[in-house]
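Today's session is about reading a structure prediction critically. Students often jump straight to the picture, but the first step is always the sequence itself: look for stretches that repeat, for charged clusters, for runs of hydrophobic residues. Only then move on to the predicted structure, which in these notes is written as discrete structure tokens rather than atom positions. Here is the chain we will use throughout the hour.
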Amino acid sequence: MSSSVPYDPYVPQNQNSNVAHLQSQIDDTVGVMRDNINKVAERGERLDSLDTKADNLATSARGFNRKANDVRKQMWWKNMKMKMCLIAAVIIAIIVIVVPIAVHFS
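Below is the predicted structure for this chain, in token form.
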């Protein structure tokens, strides 16, 4: 080896081709691992985003459920009022028809 060039473990030396080949494989493996680490980090970010969206959806669902129950109760009361009005109208109609007949026969 020449003493003017410092030793660098990542630069293949002129020893044998097996060492250079192994170094190349190690460099490829390191590259793949770096890519995997980056992908895991991106996946974590996507999972955080998905978790936030799921929390927002759950909050919206609870709000929707509350409003749906309020609307259901309002419609029930409106329906009940309509039934009461119809019953009152039928009772009044019966009174209007029956009372004059009863007075006429008595």
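Discussion point for the tutorial: The mean pLDDT is 88.
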